[in-house]
Write a structure and sequence with these properties.
Layout lengths: L1 E5 L2 E4 L4 E8 L7 E7 L6 E7 L4 E3 L7 E6 L4 E6 L8 E8 L5 E2 L3 E6 L1
Parallel strand pairs: 2-11
Antiparallel strand pairs: 1-3, 3-8, 4-5, 4-9, 5-6, 7-8, 9-10, 9-11
Length: about 110
């Protein structure tokens, strides 16, 4: 399974950005899809997950601001981010598999300016 994340960039505080992750390969092995991030000097943090049945979970730090969704037919999932803060600056990784951390994308940088 290969995951390709995209959509990162520079955005002002209060702005919005949507990340995408496209899966290829043995996609039938993917039951859970999600997003992590890692800020400079901090541990990797799980942000959101979505199961094959559509059930979603969120970290408290992004609940109400970030939304995870998927487009099953295109093997793609998204992270819609709004009300972005400078503290959201990080490298964002998509992940998935039988568990949320079986496969990883390469990361996409999100920078939120104040």
């Amino acid at each position: 399974v290969q995951l390709q994340a995209s959509g990162g960039g520079l955005v002002q505080a209060g702005g919005s950005l949507t990340l995408s992750c496209v899966a290829s390969g043995n996609i039938d092995s993917i039951n859970v899809m999600g997003w992590y991030r890692q800020a400079p000097g901090k541990q990797r943090e799980v942000l959101a997950g979505i199961a094959r049945d559509g059930t979603t979970t969120y970290a408290d730090s992004v609940k109400g601001r970030f939304t995870i969704s998927r487009e099953t037919r295109k093997n793609t999932w998204f992270l819609q981010m709004s009300s972005l803060k400078p503290d959201d600056t990080a490298i964002y990784y998509c992940a998935g598999g039988e568990g949320l951390d079986d496969y990883w994308g390469q990361g996409t940088l999100v920078t939120v300016s104040s």
